[in-house]
Structure formats: C-alpha cells, structure tokens
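REQUEST ID: PR-0412
SUBMITTED BY: lab tech R.K.
PRIORITY: routine
TASK: structure prediction, single protein chain
INPUT:
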Amino acid sequence: MIDPLNASLKIAGSGLAAQSARLRVVSENMANAQSTGSVAGADPYRRKTISFANELDRAAGVKLVHVNAIGSDPTPFTIEHDPGNPAADANGDVKRPNVNVLVEMGDLREANRAYEADLQIMKQTNDLASMTVDLLKGA
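STATUS: complete
OUTPUT:
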C-alpha cells in the first residue's frame, strides 16, 4: 500500500529540487546580464534555459519532476556601438548578452512562488503526520 503522506513528501521534494535548480539558472543569467566577451569580437554570455520532465517513482507510485536539460537560448545577441569597449570588434561594435532582465525577474518570481508552495506542502504533510502520531498515541 502506498503511503499518501510519504508520496506527498516525495512529490514536494522533487518540486523543491527542480525549482532550486531553476533559481540557480535564473540567478546565473541575471548575474551575467552585462557580461561581454573577454576579447575583441568574442561572443558574450549566452542565456541559459532549463526544462523539466516527469518520471514515475514506481516504488511510491507517484510522478516526480526532475531537471530534463539545461540548455542555451538561441536568440541572437544585441549589437551596441561602443568603440572604447575592450570587447569591441574592428567596427567598434560589441555583442551584448541575450539576457532580458525583466524576463529573468518574472522567472525568478515564478520559481520562488513554486518553491514556497512546495515548501508549504512539506510543512502541511509534516503537520498531518504529527497529528496522526498524536491520535495513535491517544488510542
């Protein structure tokens, strides 16, 4: 028989791990939003993306989420004319990262909310387990 409380903890735990990875990727993108190439004409930081997939935990009989892949965003870099920049090419153009800070802030907020929801599920499940033990002690 599958324990529903244990299953809830496994599902929420997998969600916490997935959203934690998402927060790391978003944080890295935001930290590198202004990182240009190290030499003239070099490509700047390329935005990272993260995708998730579900997997069946046969022992618990539940579907869990996990990180499927961390990839790169194929959108083109923006070009800015800045001849004094060390990363400028022969024409004085600098490639800027394809990171949109507003998009990253939205992703950050969404991942944070999902993380908080998973954490709340774990707290509620723990409370239910404690209440069950207390009821069994009284019987």
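NOTES: The first helix runs from residue 4 to 31.
REVIEWED BY: pending
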